[in-house]
Amino acid sequence: MGESSASKPCLEADIWAKLVPAHSMYSVVDIRSNETVVYSEISCSSENKHEWCKITRSLNQSSAMIQNKSSSTILIDGATVQSEDIMLIQSGSEIIPGPDREGHLSYRFETIPTAERCEKRLKISIDIENAKCGICLNIWHDVISVAPCLHNFCNGCFSEWLRRSQERRATVLCPQCRAVVQFAGKNHFLREVVEDILQADTSLGRSKEDVAILDSHALIQSNLVISSGRKRKRPHLAVDEQTSGPDLSCPQCGTEYGGFRCNQDTVHIPCQVCGGMMPSRSNISVPQHCLGCNRAFCGAYWHSQGVARIDGHPLCTYDSFRPIMERSISSIPFTAHETNRYEQDITERSIRQLGRTLQDVISEWIGKFDNREIDRSRMPLNHADVITAATHICNDCYNKLVSFLLYWFRFSMPKYLLPRMHPREKIVGMDMHVGRSTTVRNMLGKEITFAVQPEGLIHRRRVVSASYQSG
């Protein structure tokens, strides 16, 4: 007979998976939370409940990570899993909470497809003709919006229109209404709408060859400021005066740096940090966008061009946008372990107890990350599958990566290596985590489990023997 730790009343829509027993005389265990500790009668003759596994949901929703929480081995699809070990399970996996089949219950892990869950979703009626690109007349692919007219086009289609327009005109006109285009950027909401349309009618999709051609032309990765080619007439000035004038968008508009100088057709993009402009260039090896958040940063670009500082032009330092392998860290990020100071303190003490530094631990886990020894499905960064130690990311994304790696560091650490806490520190830690509305009443001989959710990941550990009630 199974029972999950998420025992509060929930709607059927909250159930994303089930543990179905082999014998109908036992109850199905509904799994609602992203991480669930399951208690069960280990054998048919047992009357006591035992904590025997912890199931953590994966992002793809068709699999999960299971951790053996019992003191003995368990069987998963015939494979033996030791105590505290973790294994990936798929829908249909067989789980036996014991070292053999005889005398132990057998469960089958089943995920519930989204279509079967009673989710309330906003239904939008849309005319297919209004979801088509005004250039190729097909359903949008990697849709972008232009301003100020707010018409929408395929990224590849508009990028090619932009290139040809800048070769022939002083300004870029909207292909649909002929208004002067000043900005262009990706429209993530409409992209999701397109995905729903294609799921409803697959015949509207493009061939792989067409998609590859569009992607090869696509230039817009973040918001672009499209400058006009018109230049105001002004008297002839000395070279130094011309290059430092207020009309220049970026340092390379007036002076050649790194073998490049902007022309009147150059598209500029604003830096997320300093707000300064840099030319959008697709033919260089240095990235101008953070792969983790898709935002534009100028630090690495100006560093590669040999530009340090120029009056009148805001520039970022190289430290604001650099490869993961070149970064260092001396303190745990504030956002680690979902800003839980108690868990951060345990992590910090654990590192010191091992005789190591935070930089040593992060370097080690970056190596594991690079070797794909870590499950990336819940990593809170875009393009998680292609990020490596050589990838340029911004400071915010680096802190998220560090928090993600610290979660796995804590998750993989054996209990006997965790630092011993003073009883008073344990109570303070519990009070901090369960919130102001919960008060620890009496110290009893029962173990309670507290949840910590670092960057979208939920982690549970036994903290202290106590009982509590809502205040």
Automatic annotation (TrEMBL):
Signal peptide annotation: none
Subcellular location: Nucleus
KW Cell cycle (keyword) present: yes
InterPro entries xref list: CHFR_Znf-CRD (IPR040909), E3_ubiquitin-ligase_CHFR (IPR052256), Znf_RING (IPR001841), Znf_RING/FYVE/PHD (IPR013083)
Alphabetically ordered keywords of this record: Cell cycle, Metal-binding, Nucleus, Transferase, Ubl conjugation pathway, Zinc, Zinc-finger
Pfam families: zf-CRD (PF17979), zf-RING_2 (PF13639)
Protein name per UniProt: E3 ubiquitin-protein ligase CHFR isoform X1
Native organism: Rhodamnia argentea
Domain RING-type: 133-178
SMART domains named among the record's database cross-references: RING
An individual GO BP term: ubiquitin-dependent protein catabolic process
SUPFAM superfamilies according to UniProt: RING/U-box
UniProt superkingdom: Eukaryota
GO terms of molecular function: ubiquitin-protein transferase activity; zinc ion binding
